[in-house]
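Bench log, entry 3. Co-assembly request; chain sequences pasted below exactly as received.
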Amino acid sequence: MDQVSDVNEQQTGKNQLAEEGPKAGLEQKAGEEQRAGEERKAGKQQKVGLEQTLTSIRDRLDYQSALLGIVVLLTCSALALAYQLTREPIRQALEADMRQNFSEVLPARLYDNDLLQSQGQIQSPWGEISYFQATLSGQVTAVIFPIRSEGYAGSIEMLMAIKANGEISGVRVLVHQETPGLGDKIEANRDPWITGFNGKSLQQPAPEKWKVKKDGGVFDQFTGATITPRAVVKGIFLGLTFFDQQQGQLLYPLHQITPAGTQSGQDQSPANQN
Amino acid sequence: MANYKQMTRDGLWDNNIVFAQMLALCPVMAVTGTATNGLGMGLATLFVLVGANLIISVIRHTISQAIRIPVYIVIIATLVTLTDMLINAFAYELYKVLGLFIALIVVNCAILGRAEAFASKNTVLDSLYDALVMGIGLTWALVAIGAFREIIGSGTLFANASLLLGSAFAFLEVTVLPDYKGFLIMVLPPGGFIATGFLLVAKRWLDQKLSDKQVQSADQPSGCTV
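Structure output for the full assembly:
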């Protein structure tokens, strides 16, 4: 702290020198300045005047509050502007990311709709989630929803696509904190293990076989990492069970394609009244 | 008149933010799992550093001593948030890797340190130059630590560099040790401490060698060896 205050003192000292300098040298410089022309002289005096005013008011409380206020106002405006400018690109980047994830869990031949446009909300054992319906010429072919499981180091977030017949179309791990080199084999780009779930359902294998081999199930664990694959298997099994219980809602068409859309709306209202 | 040669030397080596000032160690440990991440973090910090030094040196006469710290922090925090938004919007793949750590730049004391120690007392041009060399010094330090950890930890160098710099830089991605099983701890946080320690030793050893050489060439036998 002493050093800092020393520096401050030195600085104020310098400022005073800088102030006094021009005053003392004014007479000497007078000849020069006359030659330099009227405009520049005026500018210089203005600048010196400004610095003097600044030095005299810089330590006043109202000046300090006003300065802080102005700085905050300016920075907030800059942030607001940047937010407006980046909001759309950020939304697009997020959507592109979602579509990329969808394309990994669900083959493109199974749907012809915009998945992001057919989104619904549902209460799941792991909280309120959004689910996305895939339709092919108006028929619901699959549903995609996020699942979550507790891994070795925090929760593992996954995205799962289940076909209307209850078969898994694909699962991908989106976020996890598992040990690099051991548990991270659950990522599809490190190991094909996660694709082993494609085509599985609650019937195939039987529910009691939905475990890693070490626990008497059918799924491989990794050398040196059992907790992570166990968590993934458990999460996927829970996802399947959830789908089984809720498939009435999950597979009920969220909205139908345009010409049939109005009809289905009319169809729906009497059903609701009943 | 500032001595640009000395400033360059200070920023890149003698007074390097990581290896001499020992500042900014939080992002150093957190993101340097690969050389590419180190480079990305270094460049993001460089951007904030240059912006902060520029703005603060421009308004240095208007800031009074009593409120200088909050003013600096607000300016730095704004620049960091701007960087965060821009990377999120225009380099989303990189954002997925660095996103968590960009916010860390705001607590990077090196930036506040440059604002307080340099930009608040020097002209705009000098402050810009100082930010540039200090930022480059930080970037090379992060890349060095990242490369050290990446080669030992996973046997590659600049993996995913094309995500950061575009596909033109895919040639940077090298597999140094093919069929390497990996050395896990170097990729995990402890590896950051180990790598930084070894590189610090290397730098100090080099400095010592150089100063010994200088003493010898000046033909002044040193009285004591410390």
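The first strand of chain A starts at residue 119 and ends at 124. Chain A touches chain B at residues 8, 11, 51, 54, 58-59, 63-64, 67-68, 71-72, 75, 78-79, 82-83, 85-86, 89-90, 93-94, 96-97, 179-182 (CB under 8 Å).
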